[in-house]
Task: structure prediction
Amino acid sequence: MLDPRGRGKMQGGVDRAPLVGQEPCAFTDVRTGRKGAELGEISWRRRPLAPSARHGFAPSPAGHASMLSATLCIGSPVNRRFAISAAGTSHCGCVRDHNEDVVLVRDDLHLYAVADGAGGHNAGEVAAALACRSISNYIGATVRQAWARPKLDAFGMHYDARRLAGAVRKANRDVFEISQSSAEYRNMVTTVVAALFCPRHGVAHVAHLGDSRCYRLRGRSLELLTTDHSLLMELLEREPDVDDRILASMPRNIVTRVLGLEKQPRIAFRTVDAAPGDRFLLCSDGLSGMVDPSDLEAALHEPSPPRDTARALIDLALAGGGRDNVSVVIVDILAEENQEHSTEPPATVSRPHRLDELPPDVEVVEADPDFTVDLLDRIERIDDLPPRVKETIQDAIKGKG
Result:
């Protein structure tokens, strides 16, 4: 694989020249006329292009880059700025007597999160609050460092995406260390989904652990941007052709990755483009597990402000039974008003971190041997479960590849 900086270096430290006839070139933003070199982006072209095609591509109607056949572009040169309007809320539901969900709304950092805590004696609430506070602190402390870096690293990945994943890793370490050192908070864990928006580059970065979700509504299409870290999804990834009757018999509230359970979990993160008109939803499974996807999509299509939409979604979950805590964050992407763009990072804000109301209780695949044995025994007792599928599930529980 070619080094995107144009040095032709392969993985493993082997140097290699670019392919015959290729030369590094900077592409141009078709709206601003800025060269890609200013954005830290490089493409390779086989031969000089005609003047009319020298830019390499133009934005498609959907806002994605459509590349010419002779050009391989790394990253998108379209620098779409946008504004954000967001709101979050949480409810304990109709059954629970307390709320272990935490909603984080940091408009000044363009940072939003939902955490779904679990653990005895309200320890889940502590885990969720600590996770959100730790993520917020990390992102706030690295603002200036992030502004000093180019958009992409040497591997074509967004620095801010890695920064968000680093924030989740730091939160995991904080929760894990407290759970290991305090008998009161032992085994406390939380799911988390966090989104960091970058108006300068027209993208959103999403990181998550567990089954809290992030959706993007674009036009008439609602897209799930995260994949649940659940026993059900583990089975589907290993046995995609498994019979639906078997899936129906599987417990749905068992998560296989969660924040605070182990010292170094695998954190899922990705980058997606964000454009005016998009609406993002972050939620706990108290919403996604209680509301039909079609009803969820219909509610998001309503042209209401984020706060009203968030409350409407809470009402839908409560009307469906409200068996769990319910948490929602709505982030609307708006067209940016004409204004001069600062080259300085936003000033840090000294106000307290906004942690709204204190995610449904989740059953966690614990490292505790007794818990694992009990769970394996429950799987063994599922009727009509083919031996091959049963073995796959048991391997997933034991953490085997």
Summary: The first strand starts at residue 23 and ends at 25. Residues 1-79, 346-368 have pLDDT under 50 and may be disordered.
